[in-house]
Amino acid sequence: MAKQARSLTGQVVVITGGARGIGASTAAALVAAGAHVAIGDLDEDLTRRAAKDLGGDTLGLRLDVTDHAGFTAFLDEVERELGPIDVLINNAGIMPLALLDEESDETTARQIAINLAAVIHGTREAIRRMKPRRHGHIVNIASVAGKVGAAGGATYCATKHGVVGLSEAVRFELRGTGVDISCVMPTIVRTELAAGLKQTRLSSQVAPEAVATAILDALRKPRFEVFVPRHLGGVNKLVRVMPRGVGEWLLRRGGSDQLLASAAHSADRAEYERRASASAPGAEHG
């Protein structure tokens, strides 16, 4: 007998990086499903406007995920305002592009601080709050770049591989505790982060709403690996059993191996790269 889908009505859900892109689309879907949503983002004005637009009791607070003490205080504030956290979605992330030998130490540190260290901290904080209640769900947003490397995004791929590995290990740690964890691995998502990226035969693009739908599906019927689109899960399994040379040939044949590198110096990415470079004022705390 199929398990009954869980209701999201009344659930307290926190989304980091919730004022834009995947985070904003997921917040909108959750509010529509009856959840109490808190979004945190670095741009305080944008975050408060986004929360107001979402309506209801949606809470919008400034959040620098690289400031770990501040991240913890943010979660404390959410629980004071909305109640115990049922779901934490670690969504905040950046993707500056460059060949590794052209990437600055500061850019490397910024990606590690936001994309990986903050996810570790958020996951740990969620576990500490959820385990005593034997209830909760952690959703870590990774990427298909967490399963395969691509030129032009070496550090980004490294951080997303780290999120996948973290989530896999924590899944074992949470077994029997009543707390679930999901790792979401989308292909290229049509947001500001993907500016300048071209579509290839093997790298289709999806709307952020598609990722939001997949996240809500995983919350209603928990599963660990969440590929978007879903068929990428089958592709991943197939590539893993192929000889390495065959898998790399397929990536080259489809143009996916150079997808990120080809966009690294694109004029279309200038505004995103500028914003990403200023996205972690508290990186020294991470």
Describe this structure in words.
With 286 residues, this protein is an alpha/beta fold. The protein has a single domain (12-230, 243-285), classed as Rossmann fold (3-Layer(aba) Sandwich), CATH 3.40.50. 46% of the residues lie in helices and 14% in strands. The protein has 10 helices and 9 strands. The chain has helices spanning 21-32, 44-54, 68-82, 105-130, 154-174, 208-220, 232-241, 244-254, 259-263, 270-277; strands spanning 12-16, 36-41, 59-62, 87-90, 136-141, 179-186, 188-189, 205-206, 225-228. The strands form 2 sheets. Strands 3-2-1-4-5-6-9 form a 7-stranded parallel sheet, with helices on both faces. Strands 7-8 form a two-stranded parallel ribbon. Helix 5 links the parallel strand 5 (136-141) and strand 6. Helix 1 (21-32) packs across helix 6 (208-220), helix 3 (68-82) packs parallel to helix 4 (105-130) and helix 4 packs parallel to helix 5. The protein is globular. The relative contact order is 0.15.
Name some characteristics of this structure.
286 residues, alpha/beta, Rossmann fold, 7-stranded parallel β-sheet, two-stranded parallel ribbon, 46% helix
Secondary-structure blueprint of this entry?
Layout: E1 12-16, H1 21-32, E2 36-41, H2 44-54, E3 59-62, H3 68-82, E4 87-90, H4 105-130, E5 136-141, H5 154-174, E6 179-186, E7 188-189, E8 205-206, H6 208-220, E9 225-228, H7 232-241, H8 244-254, H9 259-263, H10 270-277
Parallel strand pairs: 1-2, 1-4, 2-3, 4-5, 5-6, 6-9, 7-8
Helix pairs in contact: 1-6, 3-4, 4-5
